Every structure is written in C-alpha cells, then in structure tokens.
Amino acid sequence: MAGDGLAAREVGVAAQLDLTTCDREPIHIPGAVQPHGLLLIAEPQTLTIVAGAGDIEGVLSPDWLGLTLSDVLGIDVAAVLERAAAGPGGTVIGGVVHGHDLAFHRSGAYLLAELEPVDEHARGAAETLGWLDATASGFERTASLKALCERAAVAFRTLTGFDRVMVYRFLDDEAGYVVAEDRDPSLDTFLNHHFPASDIPRQARALYVRNRTRVIPTVEYDPQPIRPAAFAGVDLSDVAIRSVSPIHMQYLRNMGVGASASISIVKDGMLWGLIACHHHAPKRLSRDVRTVAAALAGGLSRQITAKEEAESYRERLALRTEEDTLLPALFGDERLDRVLARRREDLRRMMGADGFAIVGEKVETTGFCPTDDKVRKLATWVGRRDDASVFSTRELGADWEDAAGLSPFAGVLAISLPQERLTLLWLRAEEVEEVEWAGNPHKAVRHDPNATLTPRSSFETWTQTVRGRARRWTLEQVDAAQRLRRMLREAGLLGELRRVNADLSRANADKDAALAQKDLLMREVDHRVQNSLQLVASFLMLQARAAGPGEVADQLQEARSRLSAVALVHRRLYRDDQIATIDLSRYLTELLDDMRTSLGRDWGNRLSAELAPVLIPTDRAVNVGLIAAELITNATKYAYSPDQPGPIELVLEQHRNKLRLIVADQGRGKQGDNVGFGSRMMSAVVQRIGGEVEYQDNQPGLRAVLTAPIEED
After folding, report:
1. Residue 573 in contact with residue 554, Cβ under 8 Å?
2. How many angstroms separate the Cα of 334 from the Cα of each of 496, 573, 708?
3. What 3-state DSSP class applies to 52?
4. For 575, phi and psi rounded to 5 degrees?
5. Of the candidates 660, 670, 663, which has an alpha carbon nearest to the alpha carbon of residue 692?
6. What residue ranges in 332-399 does DSSP mark as E strands?
7. 648 near 611, Cβ under 8 Å?
8. What distance lies between CA 122 and its chain's CA centroid?
9. Strand segments (E) across 402-523
10. What are the start-end ranges of the E strands in 232-297?
11. Is the CA virtual torsion 375, 380, 385, 386 positive or negative?
C-alpha cells in the first residue's frame, strides 16, 4: 500500500516514541537461556557453582550445585583460565567438554561457563582458512560499496546456509536499510526496504557491538530459567545462548521466520550495520561457524572502510582540482565579484548544484534558479544567521519558514562574506522520494508507557512519498565550501591590501616627485651660493695680492680660507644626490686640497691627513670645516716661522655617537693666551655644535682636539 505523502520527520517522531518504550526492556538480564545450551555460574575465587540454567542434570551431573567447575566439567578450569588468551569482551575459549564447546565469561562478581553443542559436520581448519582467503580476495576485487555488499550477502549465505541473508545498514536517523540481499527465490524480497529504528532499540545495538554474533536456532523454544531464581539478575551480555526478548521472538514469528542469526558490521567502534540471516525452519549455527562469520565480518568492515574512504578521496580530489583552477583567478588583479561572476558556471558544477547565484550589488545566476528577488530574499536570511560558517541543508523548509516561496528548491549550500558584501548560493531542486518500508512504521507507536510491549505484525511493503528534500550535500562538499570561504576571504583581504598599496604608491610617487623638485631647487641654490662664495673668495685673493706682504694680506688670506670652507660644502651638495648628510672625511680632504693651493707648495707638502669616514648632517659639516680651517691656519701662523714650514697632521675619528678632530703640529707649542677674531669665531662655532676643544702638549708642538656630537642632541 502507499503512504499519503507524510513528511519523513513524522516517521522519526513515531520511531522515537516507540524506541523510548522499547529501551526500557532489560534484554541483557533475561534471567534465562535458550534450551540448546547450558550455563553455569560460579564464584571466581573458589570456582564453586552457585547457579545454572539448562539441562545440566542430563548433560553434566545431577548434583552440580555446590560443586566446583573443575569437578563438573572434568577439566582443570584454573589452568585453562590461566593459560588461555582472552578474546573479545574477556571471553576465554575452554575447548570441547562432553560434546559441547566451552567458553568462560566474566560478569560482575561471577564467572560464567557457557556450553553449546559441537557441530559434528564442521569444516576443517585448512578448508575454512582457504574459503576465508578466497572470499576476502573477492571482497577486495569489488569496484564499489554496492558490489561489495552484494558479494557479502552471497558469501554469508554460503557460510550459514540460511534461506535469506541481508546486508542491513543503519542510516543517519537510525532506521535500517537493506542494501543487499541473497535469498531463496521462493521468498519475497526485502531489498531496498527500510525498517524503522524501533525494530532494533538502542540497548540491542549496544549488545551488537559487544557481541559480534547472535543466533536464535528456533523461535519456538521454552526459556530455561536460571536456578536458583535469586541469581536471575546476573548480567548475561556476553553469553551467546542468552534468552531472547519475547517481543523480538514475536517479531520474528510475525515475519514468518523460524530461526535467525545476526553478525555485526562494526566500523571504527560504531555499528555500521548487520548481516541479518533468516531461515524458515529451526537451524543452529555452531560457535565455529560464528567465529568464521565474525572474522569475515571484520574483513568486510575493513573493505567497507576502504571503499568509503576511496569514494571520499575521489570526491575530495575532484573538488581540490576545481579549487586549484579557481585559485589563480581569485588572487589575481581582477575584482573578486567579477572573478566569481565570470567563473559561476564552474562553481555550480563544482558542487553538483542545479543552480548557482552570487548576490552582491546585483544578482548573478547560472543554471536553474529562482527569480532575482527570491534569491536576494534567501541571501538576506542567510546573512542574518548567527552562524558565520557555511550553511547547508537538504530540507530548507525545516530551517526557514519562507522556504515554500522558493519551491521547487529545497537544498541550499551558502557562503556569506559580510566584508565583501557577497553571498554565494548553491541550489538543488526537490527530489520526490518513494521510500519502501517493510510494514507501516507509524503502527509501531505506543503512547501508553505502561502498556504491554508488542511488535508490529505486518511487514507488507508500505510506500511513503517524501517531499521537500533535495539530494544531500556530502561532507566533502561542505568541507570544500569551508575552504572556498577561507580562500575568498583571503582574496578579499588581498584585494583590499592591493587597493591600499596602490593608494600608498600614488601618494609616495607624489611625495617623491615633490622631493625631487625640492632637491633640484636646493642644488640650484647651492650652486648659486657656491658660485657667489667662489667669486667673493677670488676677490679676497686679488685684494690680498694687491695689498702685498703684510698683516692686511694675511687677514685677507684667512678670510678667504674661511670662505672656502663654506663654499666647498655647497659645491659638494650641488654634485651629490644626498643633501641631508655628507661624508665628513671627503669634505675635509677637499678642504685640505683647497688650503694646500692657497698656502702654497711648501706648506701644502707638509699637510697630511688620516680621516675615518663619518656621516654627519650638512650644517654641522660646515661648522667642523670652519674649525678645521681655523686650527690649520693657526698652526701655520704660530707653530712655525713663515719661511720654515713644518708638518701639520689632520686626524678624524668616530667614537660611538661622537667625532674627534685632531690638528697636531711639531712646532713651538702654545705661546700665550692671545685671543683674536679667529679664536673668538672658532669658540662660537664650537659652542654652536655642542663641542669642546682641548689643547694638549704634542712633545714637541701643540695638539688641538675637537670633540663634538655627530648629530644635534
């Protein structure tokens, strides 16, 4: 029969009500076992049997209560427990006793001994291992998850011999889905059918993770209670022959099943699904076969993981390839919104969307999209969400009350970029689903919490039409959207940085042009000042020659030397690009050359210099030059006779942030304290640059030492 278009979430509510009720049943402490096996409960220290269940008297001993496990089983139980390796859940396999497979389990304060009849027709170890290896190789060769599950159904039916074997997968809403089936042709199929989550409640799922195999040899059995009844509350979670819930037994009868078996498919510690086996008549599954089935299920789980990871890897690789092709364009010089508009079809295909829209100053769309005003309304709603990350949904109506206006679109993947004032929307149209249920899931609801639990009785195919849902966005696509959002944000910041840098570059260019013009004007001024000073110096030289030898000529010559020191700076500034600072050593070298010319060859040959490079502001260089010229002039006047020139040494040194200028001669030394115009001028200049001049005995001669800061404090 067909459903009337109920939304899928109504089924979820119904299943939740029923699950809450079923979860109350304590299936791990049934207080009984299935009659094909035996259970002994003993004290772990003394191994004394305190309780049991099953036909112990008929198989082991009529007087078993109070005896030790070793006495009843006829083996050294302590030695077995000591040397045997514990398996899953702490279970220890004890071998074969009285025609039964023996296993030991720990349960709280007790040691449990479980016995099941041995399968007399079991395969040999070599045959079993060969079959397992061949089957596992077949699993590896499958090309897809669907093909793997189909081959697994065939393999498990071959192993168990049951009429029907289903690979049953749990979905996100905890409902079950039959992905593969191998069955007797006379049976109806459950392939692609859904089963509500209430069919396997939570505590049953937990036990399926703990016990990887579970067998019910017949649904028509009488439970064998634990004796004495005081021990009925012992936890039998690890016991394979644990009695089954009466509700589940009735459930199987309603399905027409005579025997069942379940093998867990556990992936990364979580219950991925089950191998569900049904048989029309009673059928046992020995411990050996269950062990092989558990091993095969482990191999199947690993192959499922490999197939899912391979599929995920292929999708991630395809998405990464699309991102890599987009990356150069995003980080180019073109505006971000223009790049996205130009590549919008690539972005649509990247996510497998029916339509794609970019909402900014205007709406740009491609593919199958709603009208621009509807797209902008959706973008406005996305932008108002508190969650700034990527938004994704396959059922927009569950999140947005105005989703009906966007019909037929139900799937949305959105990236909001507030700083760039852009919203990117990938859209998927509704896909109407026809979900086949094994019976009407709504009939499983129980509203009375005190009512007797009963399973549903019908498994006739019930079809439900599900609307308002689109194809699900994969985790890889959502992750790719997250990466794309980060890339777009970085590209937006880079674009903003480029714009700021362009503005700064223009401002710097304007500043450089202004500075270049200023430098040109300053050099022109320096050139004209230097020419004027040179002209005045020439006039002074001519005047000195005209005056003839004597005091007037000497004073004119001194004035010319001082003027040359100033003119030399302007000449150098006119030649150099750098006008703020000057190399004092080069300046003093040229000053010394000029003084050699003005003093004559005899004096010029006696002048020597040892100058260290010192960068100094231009205005301070002029002052230091005036002081140097004055000290050299004084040495020529007072240290030696006019007709007997002597050595004069000029030394320049730098000590941290100070300079030291030394003018030394080997003449008569300091004679008196005469203070003339030159001395007063030099004192004023020294004071102006914050320096001091110290006169020392050069033995023989005088040593004048100027110490001053390189830069003004």
Report:
1. no
2. 12, 46, 57
3. strand
4. -80, -35
5. 660
6. 355-359, 363-367, 391-393
7. no
8. 52
9. 409-417, 422-429, 433-438, 461-466
10. 259-267, 270-279
11. positive
CA 37 to CA 30: how far, in whole Å? Answer: 15
Neighbours of 581 (CB within 10 A): 16
Report the C-alpha gap between 204 and 210 in whole angstroms. 10
Helix (H) or strand (E) holding 525: helix 475-547
The two tokens of residue 694 are 């110290």
CA distances from 99 to 38, 95, 329, 452 (A): 12, 10, 76, 40
Rounded CA separation 165/155 (Å): 9
Q: How far apart are CA 343 and CA 94, in angstroms?
A: 68
What the block records as the tokens of 193 is 């059918």
CB within 8 A of 311, min separation 6: which ones? 145
Compute the radius of gyration of the chain from its Cα atoms. Answer: 51
Who's near 654: CB < 8 A, 6+ residues apart? Answer: 612, 614, 660, 710
The C-alpha atoms of residue 184 and residue 166 are separated, in whole angstroms, by 12
Collect contacts of 103-107 with beta carbons under 8 A, ≥24 apart. Answer: 103/240, 103/287, 104/77, 104/80, 105/238, 105/239, 106/44, 106/238, 107/234, 107/235, 107/236, 107/237, 107/238
Rounded CA-CA distance 295/119 in Å is: 18
All residue ranges of the chain with pLDDT < 50 are: 1-21, 444-453
Q: What is the pLDDT of residues 633-684, one digit of tens each?
A: 888 888 998 788 999 999 999 998 999 999 999 998 887 666 677 788 888 9
Cα separation, 96 vs 284, in Å, equals 17
Strands 702-709 and 692-697: antiparallel
The model's pLDDT over 649-661, given as tens digits with 9 standing for 90+, comes to 999 999 989 999 9
C-beta neighbour count of 582 within 10 angstroms:
23
